[in-house]
Design brief:
By secondary structure, the chain is an alpha+beta fold. The protein has one domain: 3-Layer(aba) Sandwich (Cytidine Deaminase, domain 2). The chain is built from 3 helices and 8 strands, in the order H-H-E-E-E-E-E-H-E-E-E. Strands 2-1-3-6-7-8 form a 6-stranded mixed β-sheet. Strands 4-5 form a two-stranded antiparallel sheet. The longest helix is centred in the first third of the chain and has 21 residues.
Length: 174
């Protein structure tokens, strides 16, 4: 059986992307992985302005202190987005729930945020939140490891300024 080169090349490219994701996931400390899962649960849960849950972003960043210890900075919840709109949902990763944890921050190793699972309906339209990293996400990919968690599609997207560099199923975040 003859395989077309462009299909073969595509399969090779996909394999290398997933190998890259496996390498990146191994660099995320277990405590950070736990916090990522908590952020997913929080994004799917109600807040004061998201009465049903699933319509706001959650996230944070991690790094090391000046004495080499892990520090996890969880961001305050993003505002709810309850109608169809061209304005994207947002989250200020640097607006930590406990900013005192950043006092001795020496380096940022990574950041994550959850793209919501909800669906909005307005003006007869049904709108879903995009799951992969947006152009806005890519434009501010400042950390060595940048992740978007797709709450609806249950995927973990690793990305940089150029785009997605790897994906994993959410259940592989262990």
């Amino acid at each position: 059986m003859k395989i077309k080169p462009y299909i073969f090349a595509g399969l090779i490219a996909m394999a290398s992307v997933n190998v890259w994701a496996d390498q990146l996931i191994s660099r995320i400390p277990p405590a950070v992985k736990d916090q990522i899962i908590l952020s997913l649960l929080k994004s799917n849960s109600p807040t004061t302005d998201d009465p049903k849950g699933g319509h706001h972003e959650e996230g944070g960043m991690w790094g090391t202190t000046t004495d080499g210890k892990l520090v996890i900075l969880v961001a305050k919840s993003g505002p709810a987005h309850l109608t169809c709109s061209l304005t994207p949902t947002t989250l200020n990763i640097g607006d930590a729930i406990d900013p005192s944890l950043a006092t001795n921050l020496a380096s940022i190793e990574g950041e994550w945020h959850v793209h919501p699972s909800g669906t909005n309906t307005s003006d007869g339209r049904v709108c879903d939140f995009i799951q992969p990293p947006s152009e806005a996400d890519k434009s501010v990919a400042f950390a060595p490891i940048n992740l978007v968690i797709g709450a609806r599609d249950k995927k973990v997207y690793f990305y940089d300024h150029a785009g997605v560099v790897g994906t994993l199923k959410l259940k592989e975040l262990k």
